[in-house]
Amino acid sequence: MSIKIEIQSMAVDQIAGTSQKTGKQYSFCKQEAWFHNGKDPYPSKIELMVDRPDKAYAVGIYSLDPASVYVDRNNRLAVSPILVPVAPAVQAADYKAASGGK
């Protein structure tokens, strides 16, 4: 099974506000992506956290780096996505066609 992440847009949603509980300011950015698990006929929509809008992932096809999966301090399996480019934006359509759209 090959896990692929597809980025179709560099648009980033920036969420900011004040915590009602603590009164502290917060801010985070998320980017839409599509998760291809290699077995389902259609990808699942996911959200990736990015540091800042200018750090958004470029349009293209990515794989999940093995370092993305780790054991946390509570000995639980955890995932913190690290994406590795597979196909740049201009080749993403060719990649999808060659892999049967997955």
Q: Low-confidence parts, pLDDT < 50 over ≥5 residues?
A: none
> Helices and strands, in N-to-C order?
EEEEEEEEH
What is the CA-atom radius of gyration, in angstroms?
16 Å
Main pleated-sheet profile: 6 strands, antiparallel
Q: CATH superfamily membership, which one?
A: Nucleic acid-binding proteins
Overall geometry: globular
Describe it.
- The protein has a single domain (4-98), classed as OB fold (Dihydrolipoamide Acetyltransferase, E2P) (Beta Barrel), CATH 2.40.50.
- The protein is built from one helix and eight strands; from the N terminus they run ββββββββα.
- It is globular, with a radius of gyration of 16 Å.
- Helix content is 10%, strand content 46%.
- Strands 1, 2, 3, 4, 5 and 8 form a six-stranded antiparallel sheet that branches. A two-stranded antiparallel sheet has the order 6-7.
- The protein has 102 residues and is mostly beta strands.
- The model has no long low-confidence stretch (mean pLDDT 88).
Descriptive labels:
102 residues, mainly beta, OB fold (Dihydrolipoamide Acetyltransferase, E2P), 1 helix
Q: How do the strands and helices of this protein lay out in sequence?
A:
Layout: E1 4-7, E2 12-18, E3 25-36, E4 44-50, E5 60-64, E6 69-71, E7 77-79, E8 83-88, H1 89-98
Antiparallel strand pairs: 1-3, 1-5, 2-3, 3-4, 5-8, 6-7
